[in-house]
Design brief:
Number of strands: 0
Subcellular location: Cell inner membrane
Strand content: under 5%
Helix content: over 70%
Protein name: C4-dicarboxylate ABC transporter permease
InterPro entries: DctM, TRAP_DctM-Dct_fused
Distance between the termini: 10 Å
Structural class: mainly alpha
Mean pLDDT: 84
Function: Part of the tripartite ATP-independent periplasmic (TRAP) transport system.
Pfam family, one: DctM
Shape: globular
Order of helices and strands: HHHHHHHHHHHHHHHHHHHHHHHHHHHHHH
Low-confidence stretches: 1-13, 670-675
């Protein structure tokens, strides 16, 4: 493109201002909550509780703690820290008041009541006594308030609506009617059993999510985050497309230490954007790429997002299986992203960026390369047969031990305390979300809403798998606009996944489909926190930046449809189709890869040169025929009224035809316009 008015001259180094950083941090707070920064006695008490919480969960990972005790204790720690560290309102930040202390104590007291009751308490689940109901109501109110403080008001409101649905069943119009449940029965199911608040989601939070946040905190405080960015800069630096490549590589490496799409976007943006601006990237395009990188951090093994741990628990499979399923989609995502970066270098006539690292790539790797061992340790321990929780425990031990290889990275007592505290604090958002989502899950199982909802969706879709998949994607997407990724996945896994499974989609493919669309809420307005944070750093327009991020994340929107619609689609999840072989996995991967390259060229409006309108349309058709053929089939059958048989050959011929034509008619490159 011609130099954009918002693009600085090549010789001007653009620094990210403090004001931009403050704006970006506000978006991190919007995702993770506006936490108090406590000093003095309040700071020491909250830090001590957080450290004890981490130590308890590390002990529980290694030793045997009974299920009920583990889940209830986890929630007790979560609630008291949520009340201490997250204020009633923003104007009360950075100080602890009586209305923070009292609810925390009351919340813990309700959990102590439940644990003190022992087996007698759990036996009263269907017929709770008066005190059980009172304590249960108080606990639910405290949980809703803690969730409001950490994640905002939407999730508590959704939970209250589900409670209302459970109580008002007989008065609802068909087909939503059910027998209805009184308050005693609801409290017994949600508070006393392990099928409500203390169900699967809290179990995952207590056994996996918090261990991974501790693991991420250990990596971060040992300097892994800084090393991964420096390593990416040193490896990719000095070339016109080095800035974009750095964003892609560092976002993949930072997925483990950060665990947050917004935080990853900000962390990379503060370092990489000055380089991108100097190379010639337009502000909105640069912000879109940063947000796409942040999204990739949630999709990338070995950590993925918190919802990925829930997939393993819902499907009763190993977390290693989830990592395995995510491998090819992650490779496709980053392949497409890298290809778009290469096209960006052509479009924006990117300039060489002078980058002089503090040390050479070899020196950096020799000194700090042990961080790669720390990052891969968790997968190694799972591969040799340890459980996911024990694998993370040993990975944390390895990270701690390796940190002492360099003096500046050593987790000395002061750093160790900070890492342990940050590990627990980092889990609070997901922990309250999981506990509150337990209300939704409990009511769905109690009322049978999941099967009812799936029947309704299938009826609206007329039994069509294509329409059911599209409706499911829209449902997950809309819910994801209002609630965090983890909650969005939990809600849709119990109400929407059954519809896909009923129509013959394998359960693992249905859950991965829902997981990907839940994650896409990160780049979807009005809660597109990652693009908005990126725009704050680059100074771009938030909504234009969001549109650019959609362009870069195109594979994440389309590849999930391959899981559920293509007969070979399970191959992308490393599952050999029935009656097939590994050749099917290879074939669907190649076919999807070529389709994504065509769609990337369409989205960027550039292949070998800038596309004409006709060429762009043909690239779109080629990409859809290769990646999303069911949509084209449905449209053609609707128009012609005839059943058609599809192969990938037409898509391949069209795409190759456009490339050959562009190679033949290639003219001297002219500045491209922003798309």
């Amino acid at each position: 493109m011609a130099a954009d008015k918002t693009t600085p001259p090549n010789d001007e180094v653009v620094a990210v201002s403090d004001e931009a950083l403050h704006k970006a941090e506000a978006y991190i707070e919007a995702e993770e909550g506006a936490a108090n920064r406590l000093m003095g006695w309040a700071g020491r008490i909250s830090t001590t509780i957080a450290v004890v919480m981490s130590l308890f969960h590390l002990y529980a990972a290694y030793a045997i703690v009974p299920t009920q005790e583990l889940r209830y204790t986890h929630v007790a720690f979560t609630l008291i820290l949520s009340f201490l560290l997250f204020p009633l309102a923003t104007r009360f930040r950075n100080r602890v008041r009586w209305w923070d202390i009292v609810p925390g104590i009351v919340a813990v007291a309700t959990v102590v009541y439940a644990l003190w009751g022992g087996e007698d308490f759990t036996d009263r689940a269907t017929t709770p006594d008066r005190w059980d109901v009172i304590v249960g109501i108080v606990f639910i109110v405290m949980l809703l308030e803690a969730t409001r403080r950490t994640t905002g008001p939407i999730m508590p409101v959704v939970s209250l609506l589900f409670i209302a649905y459970a109580m008002l069943g007989p008065y609802l119009p068909a087909p939503w009617t059910h027998r209805g449940y009184d308050l005693d029965r609801l409290v017994g199911h949600l508070f006393i059993t392990l099928e409500g608040i203390f169900g699967v989601a809290v179990d995952v939070s207590a056994t996996l999510i918090i261990l991974f946040t501790i693991y991420g905190a250990f990596l971060q405080h040992s300097g892994a985050g800084k090393f991964f960015i420096d390593f990416s800069l040193a490896l990719m630096g000095g070339k016109p497309n080095s800035a974009g490549r750095t964003v892609v590589l560092s976002s993949f490496l930072l997925g483990g230490p950060s665990g947050s799409g917004v935080a990853t976007t900000v962390m990379i943006g503060t370092v990489a954007y000055p380089m991108m601006a100097k190379a010639g990237f337009e502000r909105n395009a640069a912000g879109g790429l940063l947000a796409a990188g942040g999204l990739g951090a949630i999709l990338s093994p070995p950590v993925l997002g918190a919802a990925a741990f829930l997939i393993a628990e819902f499907l009763k499979i190993s977390y290693l299986d989830v990592i395995w399923m995510a491998t090819i989609p992650t490779c496709l995502y980053y392949m497409s992203l890298l290809f778009m970066v290469e096209l960006d270098a052509k479009k924006f006539h990117a300039k060489n960026v002078t980058f002089t690292p503090e040390m050479s790539l070899g020196q950096m790797t020799m000194r700090y390369g042990f961080h790669f061992i720390s990052l891969l340790a968790v997968v190694f321990f799972m591969v040799i047969g340890y459980s996911p929780s024990l694998s993370v425990f040993y990975a944390i031990v390895v990270t701690f031990a390796l940190s002492f290889l360099r003096r500046e990275t050593a987790l000395v007592p002061s750093k160790l305390v900070k890492a342990l505290a940050d590990g627990s604090i980092g889990a609070l958002n997901a922990a309250t979300t999981c506990a509150c989502a337990g209300i939704v899950v409990g009511i769905v199982t109690l009322t049978g809403l999941g099967l009812k909802f799936s029947s309704i969706v299938i009826a609206y879709a007329g039994g069509s798998l294509l329409l059911t998949a599209i409706y499911t994607a829209l449902i997950v997407w809309v819910i994801g606009l209002a609630v965090p990724v983890t909650a969005s996945y939990i809600i849709c896994a119990v109400i929407a996944a059954p519809a896909l499974v009923k129509l013959g989609v394998p359960d693992y493919a249905a859950h991965m489909f829902i997981f990907y669309y839940a994650v896409l809420s990160e780049v979807s307005p009005p809660t597109a926190l990652s693009p908005f944070a990126a725009a704050a750093i680059t100074g771009g327009d938030p909504y234009k930046t969001t549109l650019q991020s959609w362009k870069y994340t195109l594979p994440a929107f389309l590849v999930p449809f391959v899981f559920v619609l293509d007969p070979q689609g399970g191959g992308l999840l490393m599952s050999i189709p029935k009656g097939g072989s590994w050749v099917d996995i290879l074939e669907i991967t190649i076919k999807t890869s070529l389709g994504l390259l065509a769609l990337a060229a369409f989205a960027q409006n550039w292949a070998l040169r800038q596309n004409t309108a006709v060429e762009r349309g043909l690239l779109l058709l080629s990409g859809l025929l290769l990646v999303f053929p069911s949509l084209i089939e449905a449209i053609v059958e609707w128009i012609t009224g005839r059943d058609i048989s599809y192969t990938y050959v037409p898509g391949l011929i069209i795409g190759l035809g456009v490339l050959l034509w562009q190679a033949r008619t290639r003219s001297p490159e002219r500045p491209a316009l922003t798309t």
